[in-house]
Amino acid sequence: MPLPATTQLAVRHSRIRQSFDTLALDALVVTSAANIRYLTNHIGSAGVLVLTRQHAHLLVDFRYREAVERLQASNAACPGLRVREVPASYDEALLGCLQELGAAAVGFEAAHVTVASYDWWRRSAEARQLTVSFQPTERIVEQARVIKDVSEVDTLREAARRLDAVAGIAWRAVRAGVEERQVAAALESAMRDAGYERLAFDTIVASGPHAALPHYRAGDRILQAGDLVVLDFGGVLDGYCCDLTRTVSIGPPSPEARRLHTAVYDAQQAALATVRPGVETSAVDAAARQVLEARGLGAAFGHGTGHGLGLDVHEEPRITRPRADVPSVPLLPGMVFTIEPGAYLPGFGGVRIEDDVLVTDTGCEVLTHVPRELVAL
Ligand code: GLY
Ligand code: MN
Ligand code: MN
Q: From the CA of 222, how far away is ligand 2's center (Å)?
């Protein structure tokens, strides 16, 4: 059972406040819109949150005044919220807030603050003789977001489930003679009909040789018999993203197309089979990569195997080879991420198969259900 929304926010706040002790902070300035939503339930394109040990000071401008009042009158109200209306400049209002609070050691999200803002904060605090010191922090809220709580899992499961209906409708638009853009429009219209509030990313419809470009979008190429078509799409439901890729064939696939699809399918199966608590993210990646390498397709798979899903379409954990900036981490129950190996052959085309999975106590639950086999449309 999900916790009541307000209690859930209190749990999140207390997790973030644990890092106040380890980092000796009086407050954390949160500027990422997704992180502000995660900690307050407030949805806005502008806003700053100053989380202290007692309160959550939300700085918003006139455009969000009523929305915040409604939020606080609802059963999803943010505990300890203090609202401050920003008359003009957010940076100015932030400094005023910190001055009033008398906060000395103030963390900020280094990944979400521009050098210009940071510079202005420091210079202005100095000019006003404030004792505040700004300390860059890394991924404090992002790390909390990695483990989804029950209500987030419910939403992600429902977001993924709705892709069945989208595929069911949109596949009818995939045939020789139509433009990639028309297929994208069919997918996007079906996503609206399925109730997603927006697209999670630009829909990819990559046909024929375009299928060799992993992040191609959708252009004016006309689908032809014998093409492989990579269809990569996803929507956002109550803030949470889903992300699915299927590769289909226009008419019967060639032997090379079938070989490529089978290799990627097997790579994905191998990766899925590894997913359980305690297994390293790098081991999930390696499982997929080894299958493709064994089929002579190692060089054709040049991206990571997956990425976390949540309020952002690309978030932690990264399912990839360990890198200096992306260490491998052990999987934990409640993580949700994609598994999306691919193989791309310039001039010929490519295949990617992508599903969304939840790490459970004993293994994994695949949240997306659209059949993965190569279908000829
Ligand atoms: N659609 C982008 C991705 O799969 O990561
Ligand atoms: Mn993806
Ligand atoms: Mn995708």
A: 25
